[in-house]
User: Which sequence fits this backbone?
């Protein structure tokens, strides 16, 4: 597996259940309680348990020829449409807050993508909610951009056709991708820019999505732009994702390596840049 722990310690349970002799593991509920269902704990102990069945080889070790990633947090000014950051708003269920933010961000994200299009770069853009995917598709269509969209409803034959065309021709400029449907399983290294219109709670999903472009065959540094709306649920998600990534690193690598989302500049450590600066970097 390329991602032993996607988000939580209990993600390791299915692998350990297969690899350890029968009877050596507690129940899945006891395992989750011991190593942290909501907050990670006893990670060095879990690391030792994983080490008894796992031979660890990282991407950096196996593919040293790959170019680096350069992550950036690009701030979006949502103006009056920004969801409230009041204490009452923070009590809102997370999924509802994320969906509401997607609707508030969609115009600003579409504007940012238009700037990238004007710079004549090819890129992948990931989004999670249908409201965001639909809005971005509408904007691309109105600008007569050659794009394709893959989400959970796209049949496999269509997916393969789009991916092959993107990799072997210059016909498509933009790949519009569902974060949950397209974070793994194929290569889109013909682009060296990955844009996240939305964030996601699972660090493994973000890493896998970044790596659609950061794969064997990539010859350029991969720019990764996380579009963030300050003072919104985006900030809570950033902190949660980085914390989970560091916990996963402690469990898998014993904390001796830098967490995956911190390698080559993690999301939280990544410079906060204005739109103009980010656009200059990818155009240069």
Assistant:
């Amino acid at each position: 597996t390329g991602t032993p722990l996607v988000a939580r310690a209990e993600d390791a349970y299915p692998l350990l259940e297969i690899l350890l002799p029968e009877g050596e593991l507690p129940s899945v509920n006891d395992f989750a309680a011991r190593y942290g269902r909501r907050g990670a704990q006893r990670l060095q102990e879990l690391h030792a348990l994983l080490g008894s069945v796992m031979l660890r080889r990282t991407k950096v070790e196996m593919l040293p020829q790959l170019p680096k990633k350069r992550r950036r947090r690009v701030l979006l000014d949502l103006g009056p449409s920004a969801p409230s950051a009041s204490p009452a708003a923070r009590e809102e269920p997370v999924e509802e807050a994320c969906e509401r933010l997607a609707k508030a961000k969609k115009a600003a994200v579409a504007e940012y993508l238009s700037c990238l299009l004007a710079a004549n770069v090819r890129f992948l853009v990931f989004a999670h909610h249908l409201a965001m995917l639909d809005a971005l598709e509408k904007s691309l269509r109105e600008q007569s951009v050659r794009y394709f969209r893959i989400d959970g409803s796209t049949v496999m034959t269509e997916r393969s056709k789009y991916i092959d065309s993107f990799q072997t021709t210059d016909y498509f400029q933009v790949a519009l991708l569902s974060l949950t449907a397209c974070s793994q399983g194929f290569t889109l290294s013909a682009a060296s820019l990955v844009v996240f219109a939305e964030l996601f709670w699972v660090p493994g999903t973000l890493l896998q999505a970044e790596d659609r472009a950061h794969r064997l065959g990539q010859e350029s540094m991969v720019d990764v732009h996380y579009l963030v709306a300050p003072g919104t649920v985006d900030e809570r998600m950033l902190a949660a994702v980085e914390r989970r990534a560091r916990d996963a690193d402690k469990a898998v690598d014993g904390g001796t390596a830098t967490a995956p989302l911190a390698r080559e500049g993690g999301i939280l450590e990544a410079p906060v840049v204005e739109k103009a600066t980010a656009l200059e970097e990818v155009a240069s």
Summary: Residues 90 and 233 are 8 Å apart (CA to CA). The beta strands are 69-75, 123-127, 147-150, 174-178, 193-196, 222-228, 272-273. Residues 9-52 form one domain. The radius of gyration is 20 Å.
